[in-house]
Specification:
Blueprint (H helix, E strand, L loop, with lengths): L2 H10 L5 E4 L5 H13 L3 E5 L12 H17 L1 E2 L5 E5 L6 E6 L8 E2 L5 E4 L2 E4 L3 H10 L20 H12 L10 H7 L3 E2 L2 E2 L1 H7 L12 E5 L12 E5 L3 H14 L3 E2 L10 E2 L3 H14 L8 E5 L3 E7 L8 H4 L9 H10 L8 H8 L3 E6 L4 E7 L6
Parallel strand pairs: 1-2, 11-15
Antiparallel strand pairs: 2-5, 3-6, 4-5, 7-8, 9-10, 11-12, 13-14, 15-16, 16-18, 17-18
Helix pairs in contact: 2-3, 8-9, 9-12
């Protein structure tokens, strides 16, 4: 880092990626800062800078002591251990020790006492809620929402005719002829954990999954205008059932509440849908398969006169961005659901669905709302006269 860059960063003040400290003498305090950066997006600690943005500077003896403190903190007081980099940068008012902590790949990180710290603006805070800690495990691909057991749902809740037809179609033999007890068969198929169906097993094969998972539905509303109205709507449904049924019903809702234009076709023709059907198939399949199942909230489908919004709980996982998913990048948040979706839905799981949608209909905007923890797809509708 050059002196000019250091001066510029200090002039901007502290934020979630830059922390100023005049000095460190407590190894536990330093470990907490390293843990918070590792659990978040990474960042830099500038030692020798006060929180009032003034450089106090460090002597050579202090730099030697701090490097040893950093090494001890990162290797002995952070679990799992991390490898921050240090750099001595000159400033007119003294030397600043810059500690670079990368975003961790083995989240969640914790201090030696088991505390999990995350960044909260320019400060840090302790992560205490179950959902937040689960999300850190999820980012490290150590835990997935669709494999979470659902207490109270077991073998007796499986829609056996539906499951048997699926099994016969996929494996070419009847469940009854398979020499494995049903609970073990479901466990082998990653649909059951510890005697309970998991979220994937419940959503894929139970008769009424929303009895135990009431939030995992689709709330679909069609409005007459361009704004949400509390009292006036054209159509409103809470769509429940198995994933395959929810997909078909939601697709039917959107198609029935958007237009088909006659164009140059004969009066007796069914017309041409204003938005190609493949667009709705791809976007709705993605919303059901890739939503965050750690969040107890429904997928929302809102049809307006000028657009359709598909809102999924959970922002894009890990390092995915709107820009790179448009080039085909993907990250499977719910691997069990995704593996079965290729057999039950028009879903390929290769990161190509969005590309096909954009090719078929470019007027699609994507919003990754990390603060609101949701992902929104907005499909523009053309005026009725066009």
């Amino acid at each position: 880092m050059e002196t000019e860059e250091l001066i510029e960063i200090i002039s901007r003040g502290e934020d979630s990626r830059h922390q100023f400290k005049a000095d460190f003498t407590n190894v536990d305090a330093l470990a907490g800062e390293i843990v918070a950066f590792s659990n978040s997006k990474g960042g830099r600690i500038f030692i020798g800078v006060t929180n009032s943005n003034r450089v106090s500077g460090l002597y050579a003896t202090a730099i030697d002591r701090l490097n040893q403190l950093i090494s001890n903190a990162a290797s002995q007081n952070v679990r799992p251990a991390v490898n921050p980099l240090t750099e001595n940068v000159s400033h007119p008012d003294g030397t600043v020790l810059v500690v670079t902590v990368p975003e961790g790949v083995s989240k969640p990180y914790m201090d030696k006492n088991g505390a999990i710290w995350v960044k909260n603006g320019a400060d840090k805070r302790r992560a205490t809620s179950r959902e937040e800690i689960q999300r850190l495990f999820q980012q490290a691909s150590l835990l997935h929402g669709d494999e979470t057991p659902v207490p109270g749902l077991g073998v007796g809740d499986v829609d056996m005719p539906y499951f048997e037809a699926f099994f016969q179609d996929q494996f070419g033999e009847a469940v009854a002829d398979h020499d494995v007890p049903l609970p073990r068969l479901l466990a082998n198929m990653n649909l059951m954990n510890g005697g309970s169906l998991n979220v994937a097993g419940a959503l894929l094969f139970t008769k009424t999954p929303q009895f135990r998972l009431p939030a995992f539905v689709v709330k679909a509303v069609a409005f007459p205008g361009n704004d949400i109205e509390d009292e006036q709507y054209l159509d409103s449904r809470d769509i429940t059932g198995k994933v395959a049924d929810v997909f078909q019903q939601t697709l039917g809702f959107v198609v029935s509440n958007t237009r088909a234009t006659q164009g140059e076709q004969s009066v007796n023709s069914t017309g041409v849908e204003e938005v190609p059907r493949i667009v709705w198939e791809e976007l709705l399949a993605n919303a059901l398969i890739h939503r965050d199942y750690f969040i107890s909230a429904p997928v929302r489908v809102l049809v307006f006169a000028d657009r359709v919004e598909i809102i999924s709980p959970g922002h894009l996982p890990n390092n995915l961005t709107v820009e790179n998913i448009k080039t085909g990048n993907s990250n499977i948040r719910n691997p069990i659901l995704a593996s079965f979706a290729t057999k039950l839905l028009p879903y390929r799981g290769l990161g190509s669905g969005l590309l096909r949608s954009l090719r078929a209909y470019p007027d699609i905007d994507l919003t990754d709302d990390r603060e609101g923890n949701l992902f929104k797809v907005i499909v523009s509708r053309k005026p009725a006269s066009s």
